[in-house]
Amino acid sequence: MKDGQARFGADTGLHVAILMDGNGRWATARGLPRSEGHRAGLAAVRRVVRAAPEIGISTLTLYAFSSHNWERPASEVASLFRLLEEYFCDVTDCHEGGVRIQVIGRRDRIPPSLATAIEYAEQATRPGRRLELRIAIDYSSREAILRAATCPRPGRETSEEEFARRLALATHGGPATPDIDLLIRTGGEQRLSDFMLWEIAYAELLFVPCMWPEFGLADLEAAMDDYLGRERRFGRVPEIAAS
Ligand code: FPP
Q1: Is the pLDDT of residue 65 over 60?
Q2: Sign of the C-alpha dihedral, residues 45, 50, 54, 58?
Q3: CATH code that applies to domain 2-229
């Protein structure tokens, strides 16, 4: 980890978001049920969460269950929820590592026992200051944007900042989070799947072929190297962006 700190700096303060794709294919290729792919995916989550603050990531947003994933077989949905509940029921690692958990997305359709475990995990990790870990469950970016856009006073203009605050309220009931700097999608597909559509306005996008259960520290460091080698211009010309 010292290597990572030296290379990336411990205080880069980046917001990285990950679409953790490829669990099912990883399992199927090994003759395992898809639920085993999700379990292996959870091990990858633990690896990445442990490494993130050491290499300059201060906010990490993970897409664990999209609102479109309800259309998967009920048995797969149930096993994913059990896995998530298991994670939220024991957050000792997060608590000790200074990781603060914040779940984003709808809470009115998930099993009540999962909602209770989420509340417990959020409370138990509240003092965490090294990493803000945001986990998206029953999340749809379009739905969140629609809710935020339902203006209490029609006809009144709004600013980006005010809209971002309303979007955060609609997504998790808390304050606005910083824009995403780097969005990673594993599993070889190159799409955004209704994830963080407002927050990625100026994000760098990285699509990697490896399946999520195989994603490790070396892949995270390679992603950071790739990101740090890019020039972010935010629409400006190179000389002005550099100054
Ligand atoms: C997409 O891969 C992955 C998911 C729908 C679930 C991701 C969830 C986890 C990795 C567990 C996360 C746990 C925490 C605590 C964040 P897929 O199954 O659609 O893959 P496929 O495209 O190969 O079928």
Answers
A1: yes
A2: positive
A3: 3.40.1180.10
